[in-house]
Amino acid sequence: MSAIALVDMGDLAPYAGRERIVEIRPYTETLWVKWDDGHEARFSWIWLRDHCACAACRHPTTRERLFELYDLSLPLAAPRVLLEPEGALQLRWQKDGQEEHVTRYDPAWLRRRAYEPAHAQNGPHEGWDASMAGRLPRFNFDEVQERGDALRNWIQALLQHGVALISGAPARPGELARFAESIAPIYETNFGRIFDVQSKPNPNNAAYTSLGLELHVDLPNHPSPPDIQLLFCIANEAEGGDSTLADGLWIAERLRKEAPQDFQVLTTLPIDFRFQDAEVDIRFKTPLIELSPQGDFIGIRFNNWIRDSLLLPPEEVETFYRAYQRLWKELRDERNHIQLRLQAGDLLAFDNRRVLHGRTAFTATGARHLQGCYLQRSMVESRLRILERNAK
Ligand SMILES: [Zn+2]
To answer: Could you tell me if 142 and 150 are in contact, meaning their C-beta atoms sit under 8 angstroms apart?
Structure first.
């Protein structure tokens, strides 16, 4: 049974639900609300005025906020409150004894906005270690292509675990760009829209050699490094050249617990990152591990090739290098990373702000050709929301 919205809240995401408000209690500064699923929450009057979705307060076609709380005098006086017979919550705002405005709320829309501590979180809190090798989220290319559940599940797995593997794509150049663009606009960098990972003469980057690659993230020398990386295997017949992956969230949480001083250094001491070639010289200064104001993990920037000159007071230099070594040891620790061999037609997706990738060295005994590109996380999340909206 699909529920029908009682009030148009100017929201394209599905919000209609079966939850009904069973009890309300107005207090001086807040309204206490209880729904029939047993949940209760409090909303302040100013919040309830600000979120009014009527045509005067929210533009009927752009759905953007029109209401300006600029000249409201706070604290806002309690309005008259009632539950309409069909279940909508009605607030009748007064000013100088006159009724000034009427606001109506859909009970299920409001239920989704009852504040919970999870609303303050930035992302997943669960990292993964080497055991991920046995439970790597795997998908079939043809099923993902159908844009149904499999595509939604793939994006969800990628956002939750920071990694997911699709197998069975046609192993040819061009396929990656076509697939990536069906998800989100390709995020172009100084390495182009699509980059080819294969041994090249005069390489400008370690990836374009046959060297083994230490675990790293791409482009930490940019203020906003690429979020999601898609790495597509067209051929992998060389000896060696297996892929390695580690979860920066897991590593950071280990350090936070087991080496708090090093964690403090890595999360607060800004260091310089830099990439240079004949065309560009791109630099950024920031701590190696980024935390939110609440202290939650946001991202990691370990990439030993493009760490720039260390510009620190002499007495802080060794402190930094010790912390850096400690982080590096965690990455090399076999308990903290996985190794897998990409086959032709495999498309490995990972969160480049969170998950580090690398590869073992290979010898030119056979062709090895990968193509890669980047997507913005916000656009991938948007794709998921649209798929969810259309699935309802
Ligand atoms: Zn209004």
So the answer is: no
CA 107–ligand 1 middle distance (angstroms)? 16
Sequence-distant (≥ 6) Cβ neighbours of residue 231 within 8 angstroms:
197, 243, 342, 347, 348, 349, 350, 357, 370, 371, 372
What is the predicted pLDDT for the residue at 1? 41
Ligand 1 centre to CA of 37 (Å) is: 28
Query: Could you tell me the CA-to-CA distances from 345 to 141, 142, 149 in Å, in that order?
Result: 9, 11, 21
- Would you call 143 exposed, middle or buried from its count of C-beta atoms within 10 A (0-12, 13-18, 19+)? middle
Measure 35 CA to ligand 1 centroid, in angstroms.
23
8 A C-beta contact, residue 336 and residue 192: no
pLDDT digits (tens, 9 = 90+) for 189-219: 999 999 998 876 677 777 778 888 999 999 9
Q: How far is the CA of 93 from the centre of ligand 1 (A)?
A: 10
Cβ contacts of 200 within 8 Å, gap of 6 or more: 208, 209
Average pLDDT, the chain: 94
> pLDDT per residue over 125-181, tens digit each?
789 999 999 999 999 999 999 988 999 999 999 999 999 999 999 999 999 999 999
Please state, as a whole number, how many other Cβ atoms lie within 10 Å of the Cβ of residue 335: 9
Angle at 230 between CA 334 and CA 161, to 5 degrees: 50
DSSP state of 342: P
**Pairs from 142-150 (Cβ < 8 Å, separation ≥ 24):** 142/168, 145/179, 147/182, 147/387, 148/391
Q: Whole-angstrom Cα distance, residue 196 to residue 173?
A: 9
What is the whole-number distance in angstroms between the Cα of residue 58 and the centre of ligand 1? 7
**Adjacency order of strands within the sheet including 163-167:** 138-140, 163-167, 347-351, 228-236, 368-375, 195-197
**pTM to 2 decimal places:** 0.91
If you measure from the C-alpha of residue 53 to the centroid of ligand 1, how many angstroms do you get, rounded to a whole number?
Answer: 6
The alpha carbon of 18 and the centre of ligand 1 are apart by a number of angstroms equal to 24
Q: Which residues pair with 163 in a beta bridge?
A: 350
Measured in Å, residue 320 CA sits from the centre of ligand 1 at 55
Domains and CATH numbers, the chain: 21-115 (3.30.2020.30), 130-391 (3.60.130.10)
CA 45 – ligand 1 centroid, Å:
13
- Judged by DSSP in three states, 243 sits in strand
